[in-house]
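Side project, low priority. Logging it here so it doesn't get lost.
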Amino acid sequence: MKKIIFAAIVMIAGFSTTIMAQTSATISATPAGAVLIVPMEIFQDAPLHFGTITLLSTVAAGTVTLPSNSIVRVFSAGVSGLGGTGTDLTTNAAYHVTGTYNETYALTLPSADITLTEVGGTNAATMTVNAFTARFNGAAADAITSTLSATGTDDFTLGATLNLAIAQTGGIYAGTFPVTVDYN
């Protein structure tokens, strides 16, 4: 019996010397991160308005171009501006954008003609607007991309061209158009 107990003790001791716990390794600085994007928002500060226009001819079509950075309109034959009466409502469309600071973004402007329809008229006359352009605050030229400031804001204005048909019906015209902003 002594031999069996001794053999059992030797076997247990033998197993305990050959069984060792595995050592582990740890990295003290595993990289982790995230990118948080603030959803972009766009607010209109002023509407696009070509002002009061005088029809000079019933046999010629006309255009009024409103640059993106000025309310000084350019008229083609057949139309002219009202003049300095103080009742002219010409404004560039103006927008304010917010989002993630220092991120670049792009505008999507209408690529197809948009339609203005006579308000309250009996014959539903229409005109088209196209050739939209944008100018960001402080920029020297038109562009469709910009970078939000360190506070996550930016501003821009729009211009476009109004197209009047031959014998365009006089009246008040209105319509809408989309402007979209999105991160690059």
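Brief comment: Residues 2-18 form the longest helix (17 residues).
Revisit when time allows.
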